[in-house]
Amino acid sequence: MMKIAIQVTTCDIPEQDLKLMSQLGVDCLDLVIGSMFPGVDEQGYPDLDRLLKLRARIRSWGMDINRVTLPDMTHAFMYDSDGAERELDNVCAAMKVFGEARMPIARLRFAGDVIPESTHIYKAVHRGGAIARGERAADQAGRNVPSLEETERWWGKFRTVYEKLVPIAEQYGTKLTIHPSDTPHPGTPFDGIGMHRVIDMFPSRQVGLVYCVGTRAEAGGSALVLDEIHQFGRKGRIFLVHLRNVRGSLATAAAFEEAMLDDGDLNMPKILLALRKVGFDGCINPDHMLQLEEGYPREAHPNGGWRNNRAGWSYSIGYLKGLFAAMDEFAG
């Protein structure tokens, strides 16, 4: 049975927030920033005891931790600057801590997996004045596509990290994931081919994807998303799903805008049914909330973390619960 996870960007979660999440029917929390965990600032990786206390607190409200995030592999590591070896040691130590804490899923970010120079970001205004993220592709002269040599060098650094982490993931049973490059411009490593490359390079059953429906729809629309769900889902390599709707795509309009779950180009029930058909039974995370009017100041944070947009999360949780109930009733 699919479950609902939401993103939080701090480990200092107020009791009133946990209470509201529980009331809304949230199943799991995704802890989405590698530096947010107690211990990272002091020693470079999370403290096991404090992580276990956090998990016990979340469980006391009937929820659990679904996904954690490893410390980022920054430009220092990817380009062999000072501190590169320390970064690698810290991410391995973090993976061991998450394994010892029996965290189900860990994500790792790599510097250079996006090409920010290739896009122009703007604010799109949707129904009722809701503010959405919009992006338009830069003209050809403004794009900075890495050379083949640069790309292969980047993949060499990726391999170095995963060769250390995959055995730890296998030892503890924690699933190790990457997220598709967002924004998915041509030349980004974690595009459709890149996701296959990760799985081919590391065929361990512990290696897979945080499959982001919105990101991949930005690349090529609904047909691409459904095809990739079939490709990766039938291999059992989709461990977590980020679900958001979009209007347009880079392939069809050289631009896109994020949208409410019921208000974009994608057919959400069809996508959830496709996930069900390939046997996915993990968490659905409806990420990247639009900015909705809530009657009080929002805390600034990218990607619509919980404290930034409780109204948007509440809407998405209810929408997903309705779709889950419909699938159970009509799909059998």
Describe the secondary structure blueprint for this structure.
Layout: E1 3-8, H1 15-24, E2 28-31, H2 40-43, H3 48-59, E3 64-69, H4 75-78, H5 84-100, E4 105-107, E5 119-125, E6 131-137, H6 148-172, E7 175-178, H7 192-201, E8 207-212, H8 213-233, E9 238-242, E10 245-247, H9 250-253, E11 255-259, H10 268-277, E12 283-285, H11 310-330
Parallel strand pairs: 1-2, 1-12, 2-3, 3-4, 4-7, 7-8, 8-9, 9-12
Antiparallel strand pairs: 5-6, 6-11, 10-11
Helix pairs in contact: 5-6
Output the keywords.
332 residues, alpha/beta, TIM Barrel, eight-stranded parallel β-barrel, four-stranded antiparallel sheet, 12 strands, 42% helix, globular
Shape descriptor: globular
Query: What value does the Rg take, in angstroms?
Result: 19 Å
How many structural domains does the protein architecture include?
1
**How many helical stretches?**
11
CATH class: Alpha Beta
State mean pLDDT (0 to 100 scale): 92
Biggest sheet, open or closed, and with what strands and sense?
Answer: 8 strands, parallel, barrel
- Poorly predicted regions are 295-304
Can you characterise this structure?
- The structure is a single chain.
- By secondary structure, this protein is an alpha/beta fold.
- The chain has one domain (3-330): TIM Barrel, CATH 3.20.20.
- 42% of the residues lie in helices and 18% in strands.
- The protein contains eleven helices and twelve strands.
- It has helices at 15-24, 40-43, 48-59, 75-78, 84-100, 148-172, 192-201, 213-233, 250-253, 268-277, 310-330; strands spanning 3-8, 28-31, 64-69, 105-107, 119-125, 131-137, 175-178, 207-212, 238-242, 245-247, 255-259, 283-285.
- The strands form two sheets. Strands 1-2-3-4-7-8-9-12 form an eight-stranded parallel barrel, surrounded by five helices.
- The longest helix has 25 residues, at 148-172.
- The chain is globular and about 50 Å long.
- The two termini are 12 Å apart.
- Mean pLDDT is 92; it is low at 295-304.
